């Protein structure tokens, strides 16, 4: 594969990413509609109810963040990539493109909202990456509990208050040297997770990468 024929440059993938980033640019409008519909009780919603209420919102990784994920997966060549939080699949496409270009590996990703999961699957098929992606629909704390193989790369971008529980669930499968990446370090809900991975006593060496809302890149020690 030459430098100008990598999967990220493939027309179907470029078109899908352009379409989804353009749609995601309207997330603020969609979020305002959600707030107007449920102004008082959003804090009392379950994770499933929140996922369903926010089904119109893409909540994507940034374009630069996506390219960083692609580069990290190309460099580390993981056999199994696990992602918490597909949404419409923008970050998943970058992970899957890297796996495809590595010539080996598979992406296991999760999504709680059925409509988003269906849309993401359609996009994976349309871009020709469906054969390197398995989407687990439902509560990630349940769907990932059945995972038995080693996790060679972990990306956390679902509900921020669930990132630490998901990490703890998967830690028995994470070997030393494995990269764990979390998006949106500026969000308050991610603080317990950040406290965990920034404490070397918990078995991580961590650094914040300043792209958009920030990516926390942690290496399992």
What this model shows, in words?
This protein has 221 residues and is an alpha/beta fold. It is built from 9 helices and 7 strands, in the order H-H-H-H-E-H-E-H-E-H-E-H-E-H-E-E. It has helices at 11-24, 27-37, 47-53, 63-76, 90-102, 114-126, 140-143, 163-170, 191-197; strands at residues 80-84, 106-111, 133-137, 151-156, 174-183, 204-209, 215-220. Strands 3-2-1-4-5-7-6 form a 7-stranded mixed sheet, with helices on both faces. Strand 6 (204-209) and strand 7 (215-220) form a beta hairpin. Helix 4 runs parallel beside helix 5. It is globular.
Q: Helix coverage percent of residues?
A: 40-55%
Q: Tell me, what's the shape?
A: globular
* Biggest sheet architecture: 7 strands, mixed
Radius of gyration, taken over Cα atoms and rounded to an integer in Å: 17 Å
Structural classification:
alpha/beta
Secondary structure tally: strands: 7
N-to-C order of helices and strands: HHHHEHEHEHEHEHEE
**DSSP summary: helix tally:** 9
Name the average pLDDT: 90
The proportion of residues in beta strands is 15-25%
Low-confidence stretches: none
End-to-end gap: 33 Å
Strand order of the largest sheet: 3-2-1-4-5-7-6
């Amino acid at each position: 594969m030459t430098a100008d024929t990598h999967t990220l440059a493939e027309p179907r993938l470029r078109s899908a990413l352009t379409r989804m980033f353009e749609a995601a640019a309207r997330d603020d409008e969609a979020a305002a509609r959600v707030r107007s519909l449920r102004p008082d009780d959003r804090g009392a919603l379950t994770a499933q109810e929140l996922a369903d209420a926010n089904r119109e919102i893409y909540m994507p990784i940034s374009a630069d963040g996506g390219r960083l994920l692609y580069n990290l997966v190309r460099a580390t060549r993981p056999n199994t990539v696990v992602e918490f939080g597909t949404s419409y699949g923008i970050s998943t496409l970058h992970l899957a493109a890297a796996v495809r270009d590595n010539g080996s590996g598979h992406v296991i990703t999760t999504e709680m909202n059925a409509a988003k999961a269906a849309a993401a699957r359609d996009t994976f098929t349309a871009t020709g990456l469906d054969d390197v992606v398995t989407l687990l629909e439902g509560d990630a704390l349940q769907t990932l509990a059945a995972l038995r193989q080693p996790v060679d790369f972990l990306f956390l971008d679902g509900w921020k208050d669930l990132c630490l529980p998901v990490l703890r669930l998967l830690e028995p499968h994470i070997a030393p040297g494995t990269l764990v990446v979390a998006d949106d370090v500026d969000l308050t809900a991610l603080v317990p997770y950040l406290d965990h991975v920034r404490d070397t006593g918990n078995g991580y060496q961590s650094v914040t990468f300043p792209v958009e809302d920030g990516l926390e890149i942690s290496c399992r020690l």
